[in-house]
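Hi U.,

Before I forget, here's the chain from the pilot set. I'm dumping it here mostly so it's searchable later in email.
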Amino acid sequence: MITTTLNRIREHGPCKEGWTKLLAGLNKTRPDDEPLPFAEIVAIRNLDDALWCTRAEPQHAATWRLYAVWCARQVARLMTDPRSLAALDVAERHAHGQATDKELAAASAAASAATWDAAWDAAWDAASAAASAAASAAAWDAAWDATWDAAWAAAWDAAWAAAWDAAWAAARDAQTAEFLRVVNA
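Structure:
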């Protein structure tokens, strides 16, 4: 079981609200060196706060990296650039001591470049589509179409938001379950 302590967490400057709630959840008024299981942080606060607290235990960096890779692999099907997928492989190998810091930095830089490339492509496509639509629209048809499209989009967005919320909650539950498995192993 992986633990931390309140003193080690405090050394990293937690936010006042989260810190106060963690202390209250533990029925404490000040930090101490008593072992604090990460699972207990999740139970009192949430996964986000527990993940933030991992910085207090850098000796488990490989474990934290493997958890991050696991999370990323859950959405790897959305990664269309091979540089991003390669970065996951290097990060996993690094956690197992099979890739150097230099290889990890290079993979990170390549994945970052892939992200920027995708963002620029999306921005360019959006700007091009907007310019094309503005140049060719007839006033009445455009107004009618825009009204219809807006109504349809609003209905679609509402349905999509509900589906997204359910998917987000399911993904978060899976991430929490995996984190608890990792810290309780």
